[in-house]
Amino acid sequence: MQLDRTQNGYTPHARFSIRLAKSAQEIELAQRLRWSVFADEQGAHLSSPRQGLDIDHFDLHCDHMVVTEVETGQIVGTYRLLTADAAARCGGYYSQREFDIQRLTAGPLRLLEIGRSCVHPNFRTGTVIALLWSGIAAYLMQSKHDALIGCASIALASDPLPGFALAHDLAARYPASERHRVEPRVRTPHAAGSSARATIPPLLKGYFRCGAVVCGAPYWDREFNSADLFLYLAVADVEARYARRFMPHTGEDN
């Protein structure tokens, strides 16, 4: 079951609302925000059919979650979500471009992939990130998936060594079980001892707080100039305090 696109939002908030994009125009605004963050701010070299918009093959098959500032209508944060059914229709998950995930997809698990997450630089507060998580949690539970997957990026600066080191450190600190391991198609170099100079992105911290694990070595994404970690978060393993905080009450008693 997919969330009702006519809802005003999943979590009431005085300044912001969060919901699924309801029109092609709203999706385009999310794609423009993605270009601004990934290309203009972070220096990614995007292959897109339209300058100024981050567009790829998967956008047509995804739901696009947007955080909007109520007063101005500006989209200030976004995620895109690819369901198991949509992945089957479009030939697979985006993550499969970076990782061999056959071990995961060969089984009966229904996997929801999230990606292309970004927040406008003027709105990178705990509020916007928490709203994004509330929307993801609501979507995950209502869409009846077994687990969340996705590539979480650590941006690489002109000196990429701290980012590489941090990615490897996190893979060792939050390891997945052997049955959930995947293989990167392009490995990042090791850079021992440099991770202290890198900062864990706030969204990545949120994944780990909810119980996400890293499914193997990081992938070197040269297009986005990032070290990508493949994350796995089982619905059944979401910690109770985050379930209470982010997942809306259904009015039903268990």
Topology, please?
Elements: E1 16-20, H1 24-41, E2 63-69, E3 75-82, H2 84-90, E4 99-100, H3 102-105, E5 111-119, H4 126-142, E6 147-155, H5 161-173, E7 183-184, H6 202-209, E8 213-214, E9 219-221, E10 226-234, H7 240-246
The gist of it:
With 254 residues, the chain is of the alpha+beta class. It has helices at residues 24-41, 84-90, 102-105, 126-142, 161-173, 202-209, 240-246, and strands at 16-20, 63-69, 75-82, 99-100, 111-119, 147-155, 183-184, 213-214, 219-221, 226-234.
Describe this protein's structure.
44% of the residues are buried. It is built from 7 helices and 10 strands. The strands form 2 sheets. Strands 1, 2, 3, 5, 6, 8, 9 and 10 form an 8-stranded mixed sheet that branches. Mean pLDDT is 86; it is low at 1-9 and 248-254. The protein is 29% helix and 22% strand.
Order of helices and strands: EHEEHEHEHEHEHEEEH
- How can the largest sheet be summarized? 8 strands, mixed
Residue stretches low in confidence (pLDDT < 50, at least 5 long) are 1-9, 248-254
User: What's the rounded overall pLDDT mean?
Assistant: 86
Q: Looking at this structure, what is the CATH superfamily?
A: Gcn5-related N-acetyltransferase (GNAT)
Q: Tally the beta strands.
A: 10
Overall tally of structural domains:
1
| Helix count, DSSP H or I runs of 4 or more residues | 7
What's the architecture, going by CATH? 3-Layer(aba) Sandwich
Strand content: 15-25%
Radius of gyration over C-alpha positions, nearest whole angstrom? 17 Å
Euclidean distance between termini CA atoms: 20 Å
Using the alpha-carbon principal axes, give the shape: globular
CATH fold category name: Aminopeptidase
Helix/sheet category:
alpha+beta
Helical content stands at 25-40%
- The CATH class name reads Alpha Beta
